[in-house]
Write a structure and sequence with these properties.
2 domains; mainly alpha; globular
């Protein structure tokens, strides 16, 4: 049988072209993910620097000033130091649970960023159950903390893990009920649809004005979920010797702080998306219709403006969270659980009942 060399060359060229297309498709699929991870990393570094500077200003002292201009590289220097520190393992502890715990805490929170819209249609995955995916995935993080405390073979660490799990369960339920109220009000559980439902009247269309009680409950619950003062009992240094992370060192110790700031950032972004109108400019459509439509332009300029507006609202909430840390004293464990079960849960249930009744009456 005679084989034509031209046909063989065509077959080889086609196979190479298909391989290049497959590689290009994989690379193009990874670009949004890597861009999001890079943006999240920069956001966490900025939050750490802002917390140091704002805390220094509130306490009237000098903050970080030597690592880079105005101390902006201090968080990077701390992370580099933790990477090169020795990684110690507790004797007689469960090394597998001890090593997996911090990773579960970080990865579960990172997955929540996939449903956050940063600008008009600029979202990694626009799911119909976006907000409930965040609730479900973020609920896995306390399991990692409980595993860390149990694997440390330390009763104080285990007690800190139990407190973290109890606190998360107590405040996850009111937070979920507030999210359910927003979904009923917007007739959707997609984060993009929730933002677009608030666009009609600009500032006055925000869910903040239609759900003020839910906003306050969500604010308190999100602070408790992030273990921020006055709800930082799982790692209270005075009571538990740093709680579930007592036996950790090196980069595993740093992962807990990364998870804490990642959770704070994602909570602030969801406050922006659910209650503050997301990427929309807060000017009523009836006054300046052209300016209102600027974030819906499919250009780089419109996308950039949307990202800037989203981040501005997010960092406003972050400023409130940081100042709260140095304003309110820490609660006792019984006060924390009473607040969650006896006050926030009935209030969030009543808010959901009112929202459901108003939606039924409007049909």
């Amino acid at each position: 049988m005679i084989i034509d060399t031209t046909e063989v060359q065509d077959i080889n060229s086609f196979s190479r072209l298909q391989s290049l297309k497959e590689v290009y498709g994989i690379v193009w699929m990874l670009v949004p993910i890597l861009s999001l991870v890079l943006g999240i990393t920069l956001g966490v570094l900025v939050i750490v620097w802002l917390e140091r500077e704002i805390s220094a200003g509130i306490q009237q002292r000098i903050g970080p000033e030597y690592a880079g201009p105005m101390g902006i590289l201090q968080a990077l220097a701390d992370g580099t130091k933790l990477v090169f520190k020795e990684n110690l393992l507790p004797s007689r502890g469960d090394t597998r649970l001890f090593s997996i715990g911090p990773s579960i805490a970080v990865i579960s929170i990172l997955l929540s960023y996939s449903v956050i819209p940063f600008s008009y249609r600029l979202v990694l995955s626009d799911l119909n159950i976006g907000v409930f995916l965040w609730i479900g995935v973020s609920s896995i993080a306390p399991i990692g903390l409980l595993m860390s405390g149990y694997g440390s073979n330390n009763k104080y660490s285990f007690l800190g893990g139990l407190r973290a799990a109890a606190q998360s369960i107590s405040y996850e339920i009111p937070l979920t009920l507030c999210v359910l109220s927003i979904s009923l009000l917007s007739n959707s559980s997609s984060t993009v649809d929730i933002v677009e439902a608030q666009t009609k009247y600009g500032l006055w269309g925000w869910n903040l004005w239609r759900q003020p009680i839910g906003f306050l409950v969500f604010l308190i619950s999100s602070l408790a979920e992030c273990e921020r003062l006055p709800f930082d009992l799982p790692e209270a240094e005075e009571e538990l010797v740093a709680g579930y992370q007592t036996e950790y060192s090196g980069i595993k110790f740093g992962l807990f702080y990364v998870a804490s700031y990642l959770n704070l950032l994602v909570s602030s972004l969801f406050v922006t998306v659910l209650y503050l109108g997301g990427w929309n400019i807060s000017i009523p459509y009836i006054f300046v219709p052209g300016l209102f439509e600027i974030t819906k332009v499919g250009s780089v300029f419109g996308t950039t403006i949307g990202i800037f507006i989203t981040l501005a609202k997010t960092y406003l909430f972050l400023f409130i969270s940081i100042t709260t840390r140095w304003t309110l004293p820490r609660l006792r464990m019984d006060q924390l659980l009473n607040l969650g079960w006896k006050f926030l849960l009935p209030i969030s249930l009543g808010n959901l009942l009112l929202t459901t009744s108003s939606q039924l009456l409007s049909l």
